[in-house]
TrEMBL record:
GO terms for molecular function: ammonium channel activity. Pfam families: Ammonium_transp (PF00909). Belongs to the ammonia transporter channel (TC 1.A.11.2) family. It comes from the Bacteria. Keywords: Ammonia transport, Membrane, Transmembrane, Transmembrane helix, Transport. This is Ammonium transporter. The chain crosses the membrane at residues 26-47, 67-91, 103-121, 156-178, 185-206, 218-241, 253-275, 281-306, 318-336, 342-360, 372-393, 413-438. It is a multi-pass membrane protein. The keyword Transport applies. Residues 66-464 form the Ammonium transporter AmtB-like domain. It is found in: Cell membrane; Membrane. Its main location: membrane.
């Protein structure tokens, strides 16, 4: 007589309701997303023609447009490059999660920027603090140039170029809390942070009527807007979210894939030409100048980090060289449209020293777990570059800029320092408060998930199957 495995039958009967519930949840989400898609589709009738509009084709410069679109593509590549750069640094059980987070941010901010972000930054000024909603959903943003920002390219080209800056900024922050952030909380954080931190700062510095722009603060491609805001947000996040469970003061994270780090750094260096030279918004002599100083500063800072790592550890680290190059790119960013090649060497060396020392101090003398040193590299690299812009800037290089301290205008240095302080304090304080408000949702994964690694625990995917 055949026996029946009652244990297996009971297990199957218990699993059936769970599977049915999961199916119901899945189909409910399908319906919700379909409703959203249909609603948005219907709403498009209210924006008919918003992406084209009437325009004078003779005012569009094909070369400038091609360069800005190419630059936008270069900057877009930088966001997944950040994923590889960071992904190589973390433990092998978290590499997928880091790259996934960078791609998540690419998706979220791309939509946020079209709906509301662009308007909050470049819309009609409201008291020097924020842009209005006149460009909501890109209404009125079409083929015609916007003379306030770029008079030879379609405003749509300017919009998508600026979108890439808005995207990469929160992607930089994730390095401060890798291996422990809760995914659903990260989604909300990115949406809110982009709207209440990045967008106001970008308007202050770049928007017509922005109060820092009116004061004469110089930031050619995002030293304050992108790097200082991301770096000090990262510091706040590290403090609020807390240390990794296996954190040890003075002990660096064990990188799982150094070639990934080097690949990410190389792609960042490559993309940065679009970041800085593209900010000329034209295929012009200024774009050439920005291109040259960007490369030179990166090289100088990379060599500086190599020498310092050699002196500290008796071996010239490949990772240190690559990280140093990125720090040089950060520092030259605000200055890239205002300084010459020799000044860019000085900026690279000085920034290399500052960022290396800041990393050393954070890791050796504090218990702050800014895991991949976002504050040291981007925050303090941005601070160094923005201040040095006030020293080395030359109006002869860019008539829209100003002279710095070394060229007879000490006031520019004080303006740069003010912009640095305001940006750093605003980003740090608002990020700190925002994360505190999100904490009831759970800022970090469980101890079990952190031990298992986010690749499997959160995403169900392994980075390596050896």
């Amino acid at each position: 007589m055949a026996t029946v495995d009652t244990t297996q039958q009971g297990s199957t009967q218990q699993e059936a309701p769970k599977i049915e519930l999961a199916h119901r949840s899945f189909f409910l989400q399908v319906i919700i997303l379909a409703v959203i898609g249909l609603a948005v589709g219907y709403a498009s009738t209210f924006f008919a023609g918003a992406s084209s509009g009437t325009f004078d084709a003779s005012k569009i410069n094909a070369g400038d447009t091609a360069w800005v679109l190419t630059s936008a593509a270069l900057v877009m590549v930088m966001t997944p490059a950040v994923g590889f750069f960071y992904g190589g640094m973390v433990t092998s059980k978290n590499v997928v999660s880091v790259i996934k987070q960078s791609l998540l941010i690419l998706g979220i901010v791309s939509v946020q920027w079209v709906v509301i972000g662009y308007s909050l930054v470049f819309g009609k000024d409201l008291g020097g603090v924020i842009g209005g909603l006149n460009f909501f959903g890109l209404a009125g943003v079409g083929y015609a140039p916007n003379a306030d920002y770029a008079g030879t390219i379609p405003q749509l080209a300017f919009m998508v170029f600026q979108a890439m800056f808005a995207i990469i900024t929160p992607a930089l922050i994730i390095g401060s809390f890798v291996e422990r952030i809760r995914f659903r909380t990260l989604v909300l954080f990115v949406i809110l942070w982009s709207t209440i931190v990045y967008d106001p700062i970008a308007h202050w510095v770049w928007g017509v009527g922005g109060w820092l722009r009116n004061l004469g603060a110089l930031d050619f491609a995002g030293g304050t807007v992108v790097h200082i805001s991301a770096g000090f947000a990262g510091l706040a996040a590290a403090l609020v979210i807390g240390k990794r469970r296996n954190f040890q003061k003075g002990v660096a994270i064990v990188s799982n894939n150094v070639p990934f780090v080097l690949l990410g750094a190389a792609l960042l260096w490559f993309g940065w030409f679009g970041f800085n030279a593209g900010s000329a918004l034209s295929a012009s002599a200024l774009a050439v100048s920005a291109f040259v100083v960007t490369n030179t500063a990166a090289a100088a800072s990379g060599l500086t980090w190599m020498v310092l790592s050699w002196a500290e550890n008796k071996k010239p680290s490949a990772m240190a060289t690559a990280t140093g190059a990125v720090c040089g790119l950060v520092a030259i960013t605000p200055a890239s449209g205002f300084v010459g090649p020799v000044a860019s060497i000085a900026i690279g060396i000085i920034a290399g020293i500052v960022t290396y020392l800041m990393l050393f101090i954070r890791s050796k003398l504090t218990r702050i777990d800014d895991t991949l040193d976002v504050w040291a590299a981007h925050g303090m690299g941005g601070v160094t570059g923005a201040i040095l812009t006030g020293i080395f800037a030359e109006k002869i290089i860019n008539g829209a800029g100003n002279n710095g301290l070394l060229f007879g205008n000490p006031g520019q240095l004080w303006t740069q320092i003010l912009a640095v302080l305001v940006t750093a304090v605003y980003s740090f304080v608002v990020t700190f408060i925002l994360l505190k408000l999100l904490s009831p949702l759970g800022l970090r994964v469980s101890e079990k998930e952190e031990t298992e690694g986010l690749d499997l625990a959160v995403h169900g995917e392994e980075g390596y199957r050896l």
